[in-house]
Design goal:
Blueprint: H1 11-30, H2 38-45, H3 50-66
Length: 90
């Protein structure tokens, strides 16, 4: 098992790094030719990309939190109000 510590990197870069590693591992496992795209590889194996998988799990988690019977769980939900800072006159 590979464990990485991604400090100071953007979320999209983390997904890209993990997705690249995932595709390389899959290519090695099934001995895929170089001309087969990663999209085709994932479709044939029936395995979603990491970003899609994490988005699906996040959506399910938030959906479960919204209908939870414990009222304290509502505190875990992200704030729906978009607050913007007021400009200070210079």
């Amino acid at each position: 098992m590979i464990c990485t510590l991604d400090i100071g990197t953007s979320q999209s870069q983390v997904y890209h790094n993990h997705s690249t590693s995932q595709s390389k591992i899959f290519r090695t496992m099934v001995d895929t030719p170089w001309y087969v795209s990663n999209q085709t590889l994932h479709q044939d194996l029936g395995i979603p990309f990491i970003k899609e998988f994490m988005q699906e799990k996040s959506n399910k988690h938030h959906a479960r939190l919204e209908i939870h019977t414990n009222l304290l769980i509502e505190l875990l939900l992200p704030n729906r109000n978009n607050k913007r800072l007021k400009r200070q006159s210079t």
